């Protein structure tokens, strides 16, 4: 309690005494003992009120000894079992956390990790991923502004996350305890396999395979890729003591539609300790996207040739050029391109009203806009005979399909007739037009959709200059050709935008997070935040099924199906109010990355220890590690003076006391007729 508080308490006593004296003695004619009692009660009540207002605080200084933290972190991933080191790991962990000398010097914190980091509770060594970088970040967050040593009981093999060698705080020592047999054994391994997720039917798709060998003899290994019982690729690879790696670049045929699962395997006539890393499964979804496109033009123009070359840059697309008078079997084509339509196109466009082929209309100075107004409902043209140049402005809010701004604002303007263009409600604009620096609020490139039919409009000729300018800007036609291909892909699809959109992979590896994302859109194609989505997942082999709810995230709904065993699954996502449903399937491949390792990564753990001025140990050196921790003088108990503050009297006690005093005074005065 401070001197100021003490003076205030004394002053409050004087004030209370003066008030009670004035009320019961100075003005009173009767000076009996009753008045003396009442004056004392009034003094106590007034003083108590003043003490309640002053609220005197008592300060207590306590010396607290804070021992340094020792973090003991154990690898709980399945690779520890694969290396037959789980018993050694548990023994080392128990020896460290139960050592009395260590407990006397340190505040021991026990943790476990795999793909997650948490306090050590149940050790089962079933983790499907190892994230050592997560250990570093969590320890730093848990022990801010503290210097602490870390004992890391692990094999050092990481399967996910950033490189842990550069993640730990170098000012805090890390003592790895290396688990696993460090003896080099004979081992063949598929270190990595890269393949595209998608391929086109009747084409070939690339596969890149990285093979490795550890051993001291020359061997001939047999590598093959199979699809079921069919061998797709097979070859012999020679390894030796000096040649321990091989990289294969293969082209495999995509001759089956749908999701095709392959198995890559390597074997040799030798005895291996670990054969699990001798094979990998991978899957490719084979798509049939061969598109035949009819391009109808009334005359020769550079736009026609440039458009044909841009579209056919994708080998899956073939463009055939026709005149408006030609007889065209529209059933053979997926997309119809009309270049500057006039009255000569009438017969063809009337036929297309029955065929309902998605259409790309390009206009220009020779277009008959009155005829075009009669043939389509999406754009209304009021054009004059004068020519005008229209530059492009990219609309970042366009969301009918994903595309990038490839520099449209810097492209040469397109030439079209001068006039006004208005759009209907079913039109979305990707490029707006401007005349020099003046916005026209009219579309330059627009898309329309109604009842499953799609139409695209490019309002201007000389788009061949765009392709040339893109080449000047980037040194390649690729960006422009990809842009045109996205337009063709949009038009080649008959699917209209759905209310329920679901995103998922067609295959997952065991242990990977299995997330399925969904969006439910309202009539304005905005995310409906009130939607209720549920998913039913069924194993196609044993017909086991389970229902999950999809949880609302920022711009989508999602569910994590972690823990499902390897196998093929079908699923249905349903919006419970509208009953809108999406059906899909996926496959979980039997692949455990934790079983790919034969030896611990000793060299990396030693580098980590050396970088933090520590040392790596093995399980049989636990006592040496304990001695090192006990002898290290850089970790000492810290004494801190903790100042605690508490009120002299609790406010609620004073309040009850004041009420009691006032009640006594009132009852005595009432009883003696003084009220």
UniProtKB/TrEMBL annotation:
The chain crosses the membrane at residues 6-26, 33-58, 649-668. InterPro entries: Class_I_gatase-like (IPR029062). The keyword Transmembrane helix applies. It comes from the Bacteria. PANTHER family: BLL2462 PROTEIN. Keywords: Membrane, Transmembrane, Transmembrane helix. This is VWA domain-containing protein.
């Amino acid at each position: 309690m401070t001197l100021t508080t003490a003076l205030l308490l004394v002053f409050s006593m004087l004030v209370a005494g003066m008030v009670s004296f004035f009320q019961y003695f100075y003005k009173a004619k009767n000076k009996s003992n009753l008045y003396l009692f009442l004056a004392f009660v009034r003094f106590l009540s007034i003083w108590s009120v003043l003490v309640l207002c002053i609220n005197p605080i008592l300060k207590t200084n306590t010396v607290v000894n804070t021992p340094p933290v020792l973090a003991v972190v154990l690898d709980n991933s399945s690779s520890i079992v694969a290396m037959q080191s789980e018993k050694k790991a548990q023994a080392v962990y128990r020896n460290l956390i139960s050592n009395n000398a260590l407990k006397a010097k340190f505040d021991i914190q026990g943790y476990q990790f795999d793909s997650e980091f948490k306090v050590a509770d149940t050790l089962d060594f079933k983790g499907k991923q190892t994230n050592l970088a997560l250990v570093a970040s969590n320890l730093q967050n848990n022990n801010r502004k503290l210097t602490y040593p870390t004992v890391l009981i692990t094999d050092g093999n990481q399967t996910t996350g950033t490189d842990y060698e550069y993640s730990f705080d170098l000012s805090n020592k890390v003592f790895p305890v290396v688990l696993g047999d460090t003896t080099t054994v004979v081992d063949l391994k598929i270190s990595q396999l890269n393949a595209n997720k998608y391929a086109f039917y009747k084409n070939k798709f690339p596969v890149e395979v990285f093979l490795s060998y550890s051993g001291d003899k020359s061997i001939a290994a047999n590598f093959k890729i199979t699809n079921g019982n069919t061998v797709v690729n097979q070859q012999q690879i020679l390894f030796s003591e000096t040649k321990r790696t091989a990289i294969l670049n293969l082209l495999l045929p995509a001759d089956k539609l749908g999701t095709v699962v392959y198995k890559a395997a390597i074997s040799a006539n030798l005895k291996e300790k670990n054969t699990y890393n001798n094979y990998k499964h991978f899957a490719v979804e084979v798509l049939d996207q061969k598109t035949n496109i009819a391009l109808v033009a009334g005359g020769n123009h550079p736009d026609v040739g440039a458009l044909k070359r841009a579209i056919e840059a994708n080998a899956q697309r073939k463009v055939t050029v026709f005149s408006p008078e030609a007889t065209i079997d529209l059933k053979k084509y997926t997309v119809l391109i009309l270049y500057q339509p006039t009255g000569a196109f009438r017969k063809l466009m009337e036929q297309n009203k029955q065929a309902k082929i998605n259409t790309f209309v390009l206009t220009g100075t020779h277009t008959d806009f009155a005829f075009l107004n009669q043939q389509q409902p999406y754009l209304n043209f009021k054009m004059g005979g004068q020519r005008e140049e229209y530059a492009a402005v990219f609309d970042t809010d366009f969301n009918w399909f994903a595309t990038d701004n490839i520099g449209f604002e810097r492209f040469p303007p397109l030439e079209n007739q001068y006039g006004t263009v208005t759009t209907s409600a079913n039109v979305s604009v990707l490029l707006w037009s401007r005349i020099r620096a003046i916005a026209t609020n009219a579309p330059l490139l627009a898309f329309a959709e109604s009842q499953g039919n799609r139409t695209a409009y490019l309002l201007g000729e000389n788009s061949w200059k765009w392709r040339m300018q893109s080449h000047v800007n980037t040194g390649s036609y690729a960006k422009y050709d990809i842009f045109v291909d996205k337009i063709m892909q949009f038009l080649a699809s008959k699917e209209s935008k759905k209310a329920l959109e679901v995103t998922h992979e067609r295959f997952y590896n065991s242990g990977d997070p299995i997330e399925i994302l969904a969006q439910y859109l309202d009539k304005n194609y905005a995310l409906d935040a009130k939607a209720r989505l549920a998913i039913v997942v069924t194993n196609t082999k044993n017909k086991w099924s389970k229902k999950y709810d999809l949880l609302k995230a920022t711009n989508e709904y999602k569910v994590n199906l972690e823990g499902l065993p390897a196998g093929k699954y079908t699923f249905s996502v349903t919006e419970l109010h509208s009953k809108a449903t999406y059906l899909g399937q996926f496959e979980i491949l039997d692949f455990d990355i934790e079983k790919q390792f034969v030896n611990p990564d000793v060299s990396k753990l030693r580098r980590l220890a050396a970088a933090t001025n520590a040392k790596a140990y093995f399980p049989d050196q636990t006592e040496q590690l304990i001695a090192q921790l006990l002898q290290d003088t850089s970790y000492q108990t810290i004494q801190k003076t903790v100042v605690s503050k508490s009120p002299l009297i609790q406010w609620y006690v004073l309040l009850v006391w004041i009420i009691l005093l006032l009640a006594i005074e009132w009852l005595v005065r009432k009883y003696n007729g003084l009220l």
